[in-house]
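Entry 14. Ran structure prediction on the chain below.
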Amino acid sequence: MLSSMPLHAEAAQAVAQPPSTPAATVPQLLGLHSFPSATTLADSYDLILDAVFGFSFAGSVRSPFDTVLQRIAASGVPVASVDVPSGWNVESGPPEPGSDTPAIWPQVLISLTAPKRCAVHFDSYVQRCQLSATSDGPCPEHWLGGRFLPPPLAKQYSLQWLPKYPGIQQSVKLS
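Output, structure tokens:
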């Protein structure tokens, strides 16, 4: 699902997500015929919620998804990515410079259950911003969401380092 939503409380939301029909083609699934241009995104939206691909995505981004990612990247609109920024490899991180896949560097990364290996690239990006005296605007943020990791599973995968959630909070800021 891709959601672009104005942050103004009285503003409408725009969502492009798959219809319920299994016979839909990829462009129909994306609503690509009506997906906003980079200019329209920049002029009309304050935030893009990036949930185009899941953490198991692998390989190169193919049409029509490449067009969607290009428009998001070119828009300059802040992006909040869920789990792994779309187009990134879950292990190795963002696409190589010069590749056909645009690099989406979100303003907010929301990791689910535990940060994926690629998040080290995002955390380095955040640290560079925090150390830079010339940073324009607020630095990106990394959040962890989901308290549903059972202790035996955390132990099995050596995830005891994960931060404790305060009180009944469902998320915790990592950086």
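Residues 1 and 17 are 5 Å apart (CA to CA). Will compare against last week's run tomorrow.
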